Predict the structure.
Amino acid sequence: MFHSDNLSVNTKNHLMIGSHDTVDLAREYGTPLYVLDEDLIRKNCREYKEAIETYFDGNGLVLFASKALCTMHTARITAEEGLGADVVSGGELYTLYKAGFPMEKVFFHGNNKTPDEIELAITYGVGHMVVDNRFELDLINEIAGAKGIVQNVLFRIKPGIDAHTHDFVKTGQIDSKFGFALENGEATQIHRYASTLTNIRIDGVHCHIGSQIFDVDPFCEAAKVMINFIADLYESLSLKIKILNLGGGFGIKYVAEDDPLPPTDYIKKVAETVKDIAKQRNINLPFLVFEPGRSIVAAAGITLYTVGCIKKIENIRTYVSVDGGMGDNPRYILYGSKYSAVVANNASAELVAPITIAGKCCESGDIIQENIMMPEIKVGDTLAVLSTGAYNYSMASNYNRIPRPPIVAVRGSEKKLIVKRETYDDLIKNDIL
Ligand code: LLP
């Protein structure tokens, strides 16, 4: 009935996540509440790892893109599952460091890393910096030099691939703030320059074409372009590139119409392309890195809300307002993202009419979903919005000074609060009177 296998309905007609009744969770922890199915996250991590084993002889590494969901607990469980991590800020890096994440398996991204962030990354012993521009490269060389180390780097390349996704989450084309373009030669020039720097070791190349992509062809195209570039670098500069990091971006199912491939299929097809082109160009197979974020955590998360008021505007629409909104899920207001929702305390009821789920912020655009078919809803019902595990908590804000919800992780019959609910005192703790 639901598009994620970990959701079901019990005899009380309540929505279950794993073996937990969501109505009980809402009662125990209050709403809004993020619930995370740790078993599903671990299963997804294993699926990715096994795909690399099966289709690339284990010659690769899967990184969890922490931007999708960055907490100390998720850092710990992805580390336990043997994944590396992609971080994009000092804050993400610090979270992982404090959680005991192995720093040598961290790749540090970002188009404008500050000197402080670079210093921190090098001090922590981050395995690879993914260099976005020449200013940063010089800074890394200088800071690594001052510490007497040689820093491993990858260069972020724009492969010129147009992925069919929302404009805001497309990144592989030349008109992008990220990385070095191939078309105008800057990608080659930066490698030539970097090979003259004493505290830089050129280890690999990276690209990321976008997010929530369903079609495997753009990933294969990107792989092709990148392998050809690796071969060209060897021919023109005698550079041996060892790592090919193809980023993340694999799509997931938010609504019935979404039809993503299982992650294994993406990896299989991309690995085949990499092998083919490497053979054609007569180069060694690179160490293959992927950076999935959404496809590891999105379906594992749901958000529980309580319905506070219902406003039926005859011949226009019905607003059902919940106790959260754009503060805990800004994806509709940002991207018009689609979600599915369930009345958790009446989970298999028949769908009767379209409603608009609105948040409690002082902003008309504060909507979680517009005109979705739902069963009869009453004030006090628990509403579950599905597949909110990625880019919800990590993009949450305190707009209108609304405290961010807690996260509870469930695993088998166990449950654990992994992020506390913010308090009003948390909201004012940095204010100075
Ligand atoms: N690697 C790099 C370099 C990235 O920029 C991203 C996402 C990923 C990996 C992970 O992509 P994923 O597998 O999660 O699609 N806030 C937007 C998504 C922005 C994605 C940014 N970069 C959203 O809510 O849809």
Observations:
- DSSP finds twelve helices and 21 strands in the chain.
